[in-house]
Amino acid sequence: MKQDNSQELFPVVDEEGNIVGSATRGECHSGRKLLHPVVHLHVFNAKGELYLQKRPAWKDIQPGKWDTAVGGHVDWGESVMQALRREASEELNLSGFKPHAVARYVFESSRERELVFTFLAEAGGDILQPSSELDGGRFWSIDEIRSSMGKGIFTPNFEGEIERVLDVRRKSRS
């Protein structure tokens, strides 16, 4: 069965994003609360719908939930922007997009602490190609997302940041 690489090396950072050490994925997701950076990319189509990925059942965090179009860890020795472009390419075969920064915040669960760098982008078309890293994906209307909130369908990260993403998108388009 496919699984996450527990030996993958991540930077450990302070709340400003300064690297203070390193740790493996296994250590970061063990409940030790080692703050490590991740990237999220919300991808909208021309109709204003938002692409969401379905997390595969084999993921060690939030399996089977719907989540941001692109989400992943910043690897050791990698910048946030390098991680964002790598993850977009790996997960959706997406390149050439213009990311707009939305927020940076600390997310904490019972197993981990993440320094989340959130971005949004507009997709050139309606077709995105999810990789085998995902259990599929599709575009959702904003009304469909809002009516599904709080029902255990989405990851807590997604539910915590969606309104901020929509607000930044609305302001950037006016």
Please give a structural write-up.
The structure is a single chain. It is built from four helices and nine strands, in the order ββαββββαβββαα. With 174 residues, it is of the alpha+beta class. The protein has a single domain (9-173), classed as Alpha-Beta Complex (Nucleoside Triphosphate Pyrophosphohydrolase), CATH 3.90.79. Strands 3, 4, 5, 6, 7, 8 and 9 form a seven-stranded mixed beta sheet that branches. Strands 1-2 form a two-stranded antiparallel sheet. The longest helix has 18 residues, at 156-173. The protein starts with 8 loop residues before the first strand and ends with a helix.
Keywords:
174 residues, alpha+beta, Nucleoside Triphosphate Pyrophosphohydrolase, seven-stranded mixed β-sheet, two-stranded antiparallel ribbon, 4 helices, 9 strands, 24% helix, globular
Q: Please provide the ordered H/E string of secondary-structure elements.
A: EEHEEEEHEEEHH
Q: Major β-sheet, in short?
A: 7 strands, mixed
Radius of gyration: 15 Å
Number of strands: 9
CATH topology: Nucleoside Triphosphate Pyrophosphohydrolase
Query: Which CATH class applies here?
Result: Alpha Beta
CATH homologous superfamily grouping: Nucleoside Triphosphate Pyrophosphohydrolase
Number of domains: 1
Mean pLDDT, nearest integer?
Answer: 90
Overall CATH architecture: Alpha-Beta Complex
